[in-house]
Backbone:
Protein backbone atom coordinates (compact mmCIF):
# COMPACT_ATOMS: atom_id res chain seq x y z
CA UNK A 1 0.00 0.00 0.00
CA UNK A 2 1.29 3.44 -0.90
CA UNK A 3 0.68 6.49 1.26
CA UNK A 4 0.76 10.16 0.22
CA UNK A 5 1.23 13.01 2.63
CA UNK A 6 0.25 16.24 0.91
CA UNK A 7 -1.20 19.32 2.58
CA UNK A 8 -4.53 20.33 1.06
CA UNK A 9 -7.82 22.01 1.91
CA UNK A 10 -11.08 20.18 1.40
CA UNK A 11 -14.69 21.25 1.07
CA UNK A 12 -17.83 19.25 1.71
CA UNK A 13 -21.35 19.76 0.45
CA UNK A 14 -24.35 20.26 2.71
CA UNK A 15 -26.99 18.78 0.38
CA UNK A 16 -29.36 17.10 2.80
CA UNK A 17 -31.55 18.37 5.60
CA UNK A 18 -31.13 15.55 8.08
CA UNK A 19 -30.36 15.56 11.76
CA UNK A 20 -27.28 13.35 11.62
CA UNK A 21 -24.71 15.47 9.80
CA UNK A 22 -22.05 12.72 9.39
CA UNK A 23 -24.42 11.00 6.94
CA UNK A 24 -23.48 13.48 4.24
CA UNK A 25 -21.40 11.22 2.03
CA UNK A 26 -20.25 13.69 -0.57
CA UNK A 27 -16.94 15.33 -1.31
CA UNK A 28 -15.42 17.93 -3.57
CA UNK A 29 -11.94 17.90 -5.00
CA UNK A 30 -9.71 20.94 -4.83
CA UNK A 31 -8.64 21.52 -8.41
CA UNK A 32 -7.01 24.14 -10.58
CA UNK A 33 -9.11 23.06 -13.57
CA UNK A 34 -12.25 24.90 -14.65
CA UNK A 35 -15.31 23.40 -13.03
CA UNK A 36 -18.50 23.53 -15.09
CA UNK A 37 -21.97 23.69 -13.57
CA UNK A 38 -24.32 21.15 -15.15
CA UNK A 39 -28.05 21.63 -15.42
CA UNK A 40 -29.62 18.33 -14.49
CA UNK A 41 -32.66 17.26 -16.41
CA UNK A 42 -35.57 15.38 -14.87
CA UNK A 43 -34.52 11.77 -15.25
CA UNK A 44 -35.51 8.36 -13.99
CA UNK A 45 -33.19 6.31 -11.83
CA UNK A 46 -32.31 4.22 -14.89
CA UNK A 47 -31.24 7.14 -17.06
CA UNK A 48 -27.76 7.27 -18.56
CA UNK A 49 -28.14 10.95 -19.45
CA UNK A 50 -27.94 12.93 -16.23
CA UNK A 51 -26.11 15.97 -17.59
CA UNK A 52 -25.94 17.95 -20.80
CA UNK A 53 -22.53 16.49 -21.59
CA UNK A 54 -23.93 12.98 -22.02
CA UNK A 55 -25.12 13.82 -25.53
CA UNK A 56 -21.56 13.44 -26.80
CA UNK A 57 -20.75 10.21 -28.59
CA UNK A 58 -17.74 8.35 -27.19
CA UNK A 59 -15.64 5.29 -27.89
CA UNK A 60 -15.43 4.36 -24.22
CA UNK A 61 -17.17 5.34 -21.01
CA UNK A 62 -16.74 6.10 -17.34
CA UNK A 63 -19.79 5.40 -15.17
CA UNK A 64 -19.34 7.04 -11.76
CA UNK A 65 -21.75 6.72 -8.82
CA UNK A 66 -22.16 9.43 -6.20
CA UNK A 67 -22.39 8.83 -2.47
CA UNK A 68 -25.23 8.92 0.05
CA UNK A 69 -27.14 12.20 0.18
CA UNK A 70 -25.47 13.48 -2.96
CA UNK A 71 -26.55 13.78 -6.60
CA UNK A 72 -24.89 13.31 -10.02
CA UNK A 73 -23.83 16.97 -9.88
CA UNK A 74 -21.58 16.18 -6.91
CA UNK A 75 -19.09 14.29 -9.09
CA UNK A 76 -19.79 15.69 -12.56
CA UNK A 77 -16.58 17.72 -12.26
CA UNK A 78 -14.73 14.53 -13.20
CA UNK A 79 -15.66 15.23 -16.82
CA UNK A 80 -13.37 18.28 -16.67
CA UNK A 81 -10.99 17.08 -13.98
CA UNK A 82 -9.79 13.83 -15.53
CA UNK A 83 -9.07 15.17 -19.05
CA UNK A 84 -7.15 18.06 -17.49
CA UNK A 85 -4.83 15.43 -15.99
CA UNK A 86 -4.85 12.88 -18.82
CA UNK A 87 -5.92 14.28 -22.20
CA UNK A 88 -6.95 10.83 -23.51
CA UNK A 89 -9.88 10.98 -21.09
CA UNK A 90 -11.46 13.85 -23.02
CA UNK A 91 -13.54 13.86 -26.19
CA UNK A 92 -13.48 10.11 -26.89
CA UNK A 93 -14.73 9.19 -23.41
CA UNK A 94 -18.43 9.32 -22.50
CA UNK A 95 -19.11 10.29 -18.86
CA UNK A 96 -22.21 8.98 -17.10
CA UNK A 97 -23.31 9.94 -13.57
CA UNK A 98 -26.38 7.87 -12.62
CA UNK A 99 -28.73 9.22 -9.93
CA UNK A 100 -29.40 7.06 -6.88
CA UNK A 101 -33.01 6.37 -5.89
CA UNK A 102 -34.49 7.75 -2.67
CA UNK A 103 -34.17 5.26 0.19
CA UNK A 104 -35.04 5.16 3.88
CA UNK A 105 -32.10 4.84 6.27
CA UNK A 106 -32.46 2.56 9.27
CA UNK A 107 -29.63 4.33 11.09
CA UNK A 108 -31.50 7.61 10.71
CA UNK A 109 -34.94 6.50 11.85
CA UNK A 110 -36.15 5.69 8.35
CA UNK A 111 -35.66 9.23 7.02
CA UNK A 112 -35.39 9.20 3.23
CA UNK A 113 -32.60 10.63 1.12
CA UNK A 114 -30.75 9.80 -2.11
CA UNK A 115 -28.86 6.56 -1.57
CA UNK A 116 -28.03 3.27 -3.22
CA UNK A 117 -29.08 1.07 -0.28
CA UNK A 118 -30.00 1.05 3.42
CA UNK A 119 -27.47 1.29 6.25
CA UNK A 120 -27.80 -0.55 9.56
CA UNK A 121 -24.48 0.27 11.29
CA UNK A 122 -22.53 3.43 12.00
CA UNK A 123 -19.68 3.96 11.36
CA UNK A 124 -19.27 1.38 8.61
CA UNK A 125 -16.66 -1.15 9.68
CA UNK A 126 -15.87 -4.60 8.37
CA UNK A 127 -18.65 -6.19 10.45
CA UNK A 128 -21.37 -3.88 9.09
CA UNK A 129 -24.62 -5.60 8.14
CA UNK A 130 -25.49 -5.75 4.44
CA UNK A 131 -28.72 -4.63 2.81
CA UNK A 132 -28.52 -7.39 0.22
CA UNK A 133 -31.73 -6.58 -1.61
CA UNK A 134 -30.89 -2.89 -1.86
CA UNK A 135 -27.38 -3.55 -3.08
CA UNK A 136 -28.50 -6.04 -5.69
CA UNK A 137 -31.09 -3.56 -6.96
CA UNK A 138 -28.43 -0.85 -7.15
CA UNK A 139 -26.06 -3.14 -9.05
CA UNK A 140 -28.86 -4.01 -11.46
CA UNK A 141 -29.48 -0.31 -12.09
CA UNK A 142 -25.83 0.12 -13.05
CA UNK A 143 -25.94 -2.93 -15.28
CA UNK A 144 -29.01 -1.51 -17.03
CA UNK A 145 -27.13 1.76 -17.51
CA UNK A 146 -24.18 -0.05 -19.08
CA UNK A 147 -26.45 -2.11 -21.31
CA UNK A 148 -27.92 1.16 -22.61
CA UNK A 149 -24.43 2.41 -23.39
CA UNK A 150 -23.92 -0.63 -25.61
CA UNK A 151 -27.35 -0.64 -27.25
CA UNK A 152 -27.63 3.11 -27.80
CA UNK A 153 -24.01 4.16 -28.30
CA UNK A 154 -22.16 0.99 -29.24
CA UNK A 155 -19.87 1.05 -26.19
CA UNK A 156 -19.33 -2.52 -24.91
CA UNK A 157 -18.71 -3.33 -21.22
CA UNK A 158 -15.07 -4.04 -22.07
CA UNK A 159 -14.70 -0.31 -22.83
CA UNK A 160 -16.33 0.86 -19.60
CA UNK A 161 -14.74 1.77 -16.26
CA UNK A 162 -17.28 1.70 -13.43
CA UNK A 163 -16.54 3.54 -10.20
CA UNK A 164 -17.96 5.46 -7.31
CA UNK A 165 -17.48 7.25 -4.03
CA UNK A 166 -18.54 5.76 -0.65
CA UNK A 167 -21.86 3.93 -1.23
CA UNK A 168 -21.24 4.41 -4.95
CA UNK A 169 -17.87 2.70 -4.62
CA UNK A 170 -19.47 -0.22 -2.82
CA UNK A 171 -21.98 -0.66 -5.64
CA UNK A 172 -19.24 -0.35 -8.26
CA UNK A 173 -17.31 -3.20 -6.63
CA UNK A 174 -20.44 -5.30 -6.50
CA UNK A 175 -21.23 -4.70 -10.17
CA UNK A 176 -17.65 -5.27 -11.33
CA UNK A 177 -16.79 -8.42 -9.40
CA UNK A 178 -19.76 -10.20 -7.80
CA UNK A 179 -22.13 -9.76 -10.72
CA UNK A 180 -19.91 -10.38 -13.74
CA UNK A 181 -20.51 -14.12 -13.74
CA UNK A 182 -19.26 -16.62 -16.30
CA UNK A 183 -20.25 -15.59 -19.79
CA UNK A 184 -20.66 -11.88 -19.03
CA UNK A 185 -18.19 -9.43 -20.55
CA UNK A 186 -15.88 -7.96 -17.87
CA UNK A 187 -15.48 -4.22 -17.43
CA UNK A 188 -12.27 -2.43 -18.42
CA UNK A 189 -11.66 -1.40 -14.84
CA UNK A 190 -13.19 -0.42 -11.49
CA UNK A 191 -12.62 2.56 -9.19
CA UNK A 192 -13.53 2.59 -5.50
CA UNK A 193 -13.05 5.84 -3.59
CA UNK A 194 -13.64 5.57 0.17
CA UNK A 195 -15.97 2.62 -0.39
CA UNK A 196 -16.13 -0.90 0.92
CA UNK A 197 -16.51 -4.50 -0.24
CA UNK A 198 -20.03 -5.75 0.46
CA UNK A 199 -21.54 -9.25 0.46
CA UNK A 200 -18.08 -10.67 1.07
CA UNK A 201 -19.33 -14.23 1.62
CA UNK A 202 -20.82 -14.19 -1.89
CA UNK A 203 -17.68 -12.98 -3.64
CA UNK A 204 -16.78 -15.31 -6.52
CA UNK A 205 -14.63 -13.59 -9.12
CA UNK A 206 -14.31 -15.48 -12.39
CA UNK A 207 -10.79 -15.91 -13.84
CA UNK A 208 -11.76 -13.80 -16.85
CA UNK A 209 -12.95 -10.90 -14.66
CA UNK A 210 -9.88 -11.15 -12.40
CA UNK A 211 -7.66 -10.91 -15.47
CA UNK A 212 -9.60 -8.18 -17.30
CA UNK A 213 -10.89 -5.80 -14.58
CA UNK A 214 -8.15 -4.12 -12.51
CA UNK A 215 -9.14 -2.05 -9.49
CA UNK A 216 -8.09 1.36 -8.17
CA UNK A 217 -8.95 1.87 -4.49
CA UNK A 218 -8.26 5.14 -2.70
CA UNK A 219 -9.14 5.71 0.97
CA UNK A 220 -8.52 8.21 3.76
CA UNK A 221 -6.56 7.07 6.78
CA UNK A 222 -8.72 9.32 8.98
CA UNK A 223 -12.04 8.17 7.54
CA UNK A 224 -14.53 7.99 10.43
CA UNK A 225 -17.54 7.05 8.30
CA UNK A 226 -16.35 4.21 6.08
CA UNK A 227 -13.51 3.11 8.34
CA UNK A 228 -9.98 2.84 6.95
CA UNK A 229 -9.93 -0.85 7.93
CA UNK A 230 -12.36 -1.48 5.08
CA UNK A 231 -9.70 -0.84 2.46
CA UNK A 232 -7.18 -3.40 3.69
CA UNK A 233 -9.92 -5.95 4.28
CA UNK A 234 -11.48 -5.51 0.84
CA UNK A 235 -8.17 -5.37 -0.99
CA UNK A 236 -7.06 -8.62 0.64
CA UNK A 237 -10.27 -10.42 -0.36
CA UNK A 238 -10.07 -9.22 -3.94
CA UNK A 239 -6.38 -10.01 -4.33
CA UNK A 240 -7.06 -13.51 -3.02
CA UNK A 241 -9.54 -13.78 -5.90
CA UNK A 242 -6.84 -12.81 -8.39
CA UNK A 243 -7.83 -9.16 -8.97
CA UNK A 244 -5.05 -6.70 -9.85
CA UNK A 245 -5.52 -4.01 -7.18
CA UNK A 246 -3.79 -0.63 -6.97
CA UNK A 247 -4.50 0.66 -3.46
CA UNK A 248 -3.53 4.06 -2.12
CA UNK A 249 -4.26 5.88 1.11
CA UNK A 250 -4.20 9.58 1.92
CA UNK A 251 -4.15 11.75 5.08
CA UNK A 252 -7.82 12.72 4.94
CA UNK A 253 -11.27 11.81 6.22
CA UNK A 254 -14.27 10.75 4.17
CA UNK A 255 -13.48 12.90 1.16
CA UNK A 256 -11.27 13.07 -1.90
CA UNK A 257 -7.72 14.24 -2.47
CA UNK A 258 -5.98 15.99 -5.42
CA UNK A 259 -3.28 13.32 -5.56
CA UNK A 260 -5.97 10.65 -5.50
CA UNK A 261 -7.57 12.24 -8.58
CA UNK A 262 -4.22 12.26 -10.36
CA UNK A 263 -3.59 8.58 -9.65
CA UNK A 264 -7.16 7.70 -10.57
CA UNK A 265 -6.81 9.48 -13.93
CA UNK A 266 -3.63 7.55 -14.68
CA UNK A 267 -5.33 4.28 -13.78
CA UNK A 268 -8.41 4.96 -15.91
CA UNK A 269 -6.31 5.97 -18.89
CA UNK A 270 -4.36 2.71 -18.71
CA UNK A 271 -7.59 0.71 -18.34
CA UNK A 272 -9.28 2.33 -21.35
CA UNK A 273 -6.21 2.84 -23.54
CA UNK A 274 -3.84 -0.01 -22.59
CA UNK A 275 -1.68 0.25 -25.73
CA UNK A 276 -1.13 4.01 -25.61
Residues:
Amino acid sequence: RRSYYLFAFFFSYNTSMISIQPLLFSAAVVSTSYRRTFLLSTVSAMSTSTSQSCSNNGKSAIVFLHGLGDSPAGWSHLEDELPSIRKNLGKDVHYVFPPAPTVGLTINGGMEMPGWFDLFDWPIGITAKDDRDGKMAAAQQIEDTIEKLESEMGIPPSRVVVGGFSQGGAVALLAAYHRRVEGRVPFAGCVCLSGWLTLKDELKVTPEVAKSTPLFWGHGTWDDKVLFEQQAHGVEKLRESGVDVSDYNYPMGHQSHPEEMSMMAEFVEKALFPKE
Summary: The helical segments are 78-85, 132-153, 167-178, 207-212, 229-240, 258-272. The CA atoms of residues 20 and 108 lie 7 Å apart. Residues 1-57 have pLDDT under 50 and may be disordered.
